[in-house]
Amino acid sequence: MQKFIFKIAFILILVACQEQKARFAVQENAQIDAFYSLASLQTLQKAWENDPENDITAYQLALWYFHQKEYNKAKDFVQKALKISERAEYYLLKAQCENALKNFTEARSSLQKTLNLEKNNFQVLLFAFQFAMEQSEWQEAERYLQKLEKNYPEAPQLTFAKGKLAFLKNDTLQAYHFLQKAVEQNPAYTESYKLLSHLYNQQNQPTKAIEWANKGLKVKNLYDSLFLEKALAWQKLKEKDSAAKYFLRAYQQNNRLYQASFFLGEQALKAEKYQEALNFLENAYRYAPALPKINYFLGICYEKLGKDELALDFYQKAIKQDAEDLMARQALYFLKEKLERERMKRLQDSLWKAQSLKNEP
User: Fold this and answer.
1) pTM for the full model?
2) What is the DSSP string of 85-114?
3) pLDDT tens figures, 104-122
4) Is the dihedral angle over the CA atoms 9, 15, 19, 21 positive or is it negative?
5) Which terms are listed as keywords in the entry (predicted)?
6) All domains of the chain in start order, with CATH
């Protein structure tokens, strides 16, 4: 047991070293099958049961769940690790969990505690830079980028970081320049391909988007975001079968990609596969309840499957979402009429039954 735990710790150290040379965020170190297997989880769980005061085991469990995108579980275990020992890498992982869960105030607080402990650590500065970009805090992002350039001038991630910053500031030419340079410097880093593909999709150049997605998939052949970019590009080209193929592959890798489940749900709805459509659309609603038409589509599914009360609820939500949605208004009107006819029929049946009983000798 102890040998296995030490082996895991050694792997994590190797991963951390590799990331300083070739990774942008902790999410990208999920390639160590020996650590991220179900067997390793079971071993870590048993180790934690035997020694619930071991902060390293709690941290490793948090990492395991983080790389499985189970952020709440990851957060629970990293908090347990922090109760035992307040270390910079623990606060960093907590900040990343909170950020993934969109708890930005908590993420900022944990990041600040990380910086207080390790203000010049590469991964800490890199996440601080990324977080500032995501919050559109451009001056802060520039400040962290300058620190990274000063302390780690040879780090290949910096070129990608400049490209991402340019992209978020809508400086398209600079984004293309730095991202293509990032690919040349570090062809194994898939985020560069993803952002280039996304940028070409955004600029309505779907053929180029597919080209860069294909290049990235040669590096990481099961990357959900690259499948999504390919699907969106095929959709722009009005190739629905190809789009459906890659939306499905993206969904199978990561059901949080609501664009994929929404497209698949809409296609199933058109094919009158209502239960299949409902499964996809409910998933999309879970992650993006404000998507246009999603309430109306869910209303149709529920009505076709005989769940009239839910259908009423979602038609009403659709109208609240878009007061000019005539299809939702019409559907709601006809459903209410149908329910009223059914109510009247039940009432008449009850009266008829009561009268029949009364007339019995």
Assistant:
1) 0.72
2) ---HHHHHHHHHHHHHTT-HHHHHHHHHHH
3) 999 999 999 999 999 999 9
4) positive
5) Coiled coil, TPR repeat
6) 1-118 (1.25.40.10), 255-355 (1.25.40.10)
